[in-house]
Protein: Protein translocase subunit SecY
Amino acid sequence: MKKLFTTLSNIWKIQELKERILFTLLILVIYRFVCQVVLPGVDANLLGQNQKSGLLGLLDMFAGGAFSKVSIVALGVMPYISASIVVQLLGIAVPSFQKMQKEGESGRKKLNQITRYLTVAITIVQSVGYVKTQVPEEAILINHTLFYILSTFVLTAGTLFVMWLGEKITDKGIGNGTSLIIMVGIIARLPIALQQEVTSRAAGQGGGLIALVVEIVALFAVVMFTILIVQGVRKVPVQYAKKIVGNKQFGGVRQYIPLKVNAAGVMPIIFAQALMFIPAGLTGFFPSLQNSWLSAYSDYTSVTYSVTFAVLIIAFTFFYTAITVNPTQMSDDMKKNGGFIPGVKPGQATSSFIDDVISKITFPGAIFLAIIAILPSVAVKFGIASEFAHFYGGTSLLILVGVVLDTLQQVESYLLMRHYDGLMKTGRVTGRTGIPAAGSNAAL
Structure:
């Protein structure tokens, strides 16, 4: 405990770090305040208990409840994330986008601008669908046509405002803004979910308070397991040739390439979840399909949904790792800098060796990622309320763990730069890149 207070005191002594933390907290408070503002032309009293369940409940969690409250920022940063993912994929497949990625700062600015324009287009499309399907007609106080047009403009402006808040946190705050906004939205639902779970257990439903204690212990174990997966690396030794220039020696040291067990981060779950939304969307637009085999995919707790979801995650983990980790480029860079892997010839042999290592560690990483993704549905099967079960795994837990580790890494770097002790007595906090956002290396 003394170590904790000493560390907090050291953080407060660094003026720049203190200002960044306070600025970040201020922006997050503004975001949570805006989440409570309902769309103009909507009677909030007629919305009732507009709680979402299933897949829409997941979207509502990422938006911090703004989705179900019909807020002016109901869509949150999800359109921005979708646009960022599209731009990233275009950077892999389209030569002109690859060229911009290699142009440094000027190329990054061009990609940021393209991402913003694409965000506007995606938000407009999603806004139209949102107001038509999620806003009850009896809650609309003005002309419906006027309301749809006005709401589209307001929701688009709301998403752009949230995107701007995220960029301000990244520039002047601590951590990645987009990821922090998503994390705050997820955490905002935790007290309500926990209160509901405590109330239901205290009422004697499903084992009472003993079952609640078991649930908390299980949640702690799942979080620890997730941290191990996020932090796990396979260190490949690299020896650099010794060079003597004048009286100075360069190189001649052994370093390591940290290959992550989960190099794809949260992206496979996001891609897989996007595909799993399709059957639910089809059954919503075509009621005649509700009694078909597609109906099994509308319930995220069903065995069919969980198995398909897990298979898609494993496939996307291999796919995303293959397009983001380039063994040939790593081998070429190593060769240019006079480095080699002991016992492996430079060039093609090194590239094949790295590719083989990546393949071996990606498979268990994909399996573990799939397990984490389907844990919420398993928790529901064990009698845990759906709202609280979302914190047992899936995208929400990976985002929470990743963002916290990434933010702590930045705080620790400030402490070490000022010659203070880090956040841990042994080892160092290592972060991870999360949801890709334009203009940043780590993002939600």
